[in-house]
Amino acid sequence: MAKAGETISNDAVTPAPTPSTPSSTPPSTTGRRIRGLDADERRAQRRQALLDAALDLIATRGYASTSIEQICQTAYVATRSFYEQFDGKEACYLALLQQMAQDIADRMVAALDDAPDDERAAGRALLRAFAHALVDDPRIARASFGEGAGISTAVEHQRRVNRRWAAGFLVDVWQRYDVTSGRGAKGASVRRVAVGVIGGMFDLVVDWLHDTEVAAAGSVAGSAPDVDVLIRDLTDFYELVRDGMASRSA
Fold first, then answer.
1. Model pLDDT, residue 81
2. Distances in Å between the alpha carbon of 155 and those of 85, 142, 185?
């Protein structure tokens, strides 16, 4: 199963080092260890701290209202170290989008591996996994869907990469369960339908987020929609399209 996009692929295999004599072995570049971590591990730790801080701030304040200084203060990382990792705020947000997309993709691939043989039951299981991957930590849905539109061409490209991966995953599901078999649903038309389905599902997530935020702003106890509402809406929408695809393939 492919990764969530070429910009977040980690499939590359590092070649084994060529044996060398002790005299030709280059000195270590990792430096001394501090608290059990070498220099590369400390850089990776700072990078993750910055991404965690960006997630929290962007999900709560919004992209436009989040500054590099705030990200650094929240992460307890110096501004100089921020620029060792990222060219700027946009690059940090792109890395965050890529990381979130990869985490969701990994969860969906695992859910497909465990999916039942019955196609309809499998679809519902995958939709539950998708919803929980997004809203068990509500910051992920807010940072993924509540932000991003109109920020930049690069951010829009990354959003499109994520959406196309999701559409490809859906096509794989349909092919696995023979939903699109037959002359009525093949090739490029199936892919276009999958892109539309994913777009509709993403819009349902945005709508659910809006209802949740409105309920929270009103401080009405028990009025905020829970994840079961989102799962129901996703399932109703998906099965309507799925039934249409199946009828055309008959």
1. 94
2. 18, 15, 32
34: helix, strand or coil? strand
CATH number, domain containing residue 54: 1.10.10.60
- Label residue 111 left, alpha or beta by phi (over 0 means left) and psi (-120 to 50 means alpha): alpha
Instruction: Report the candidate in 171, 172, 10, 4 with the shortest Cα–Cα distance to residue 101.
Output: 4
CB 122 within 8 A of CB 31: no
Beta carbons of 97 and 146 less than 8 angstroms apart: no
pLDDT along the chain (250 residues), means of 10: 45 37 43 66 92 96 95 96 95 96 96 95 97 92 78 91 95 89 64 94 91 72 73 96 74
What pLDDT does 86 receive? 96
- What residues make up the domain containing 122? 90-250
Domain co-membership, 96 together with 158: yes
Cα distance between residue 131 and residue 234, in whole Å: 8
**212: its two tokens:** 């949740």
Claim to verify: residue 115 and residue 74 sit in the same structural domain: no
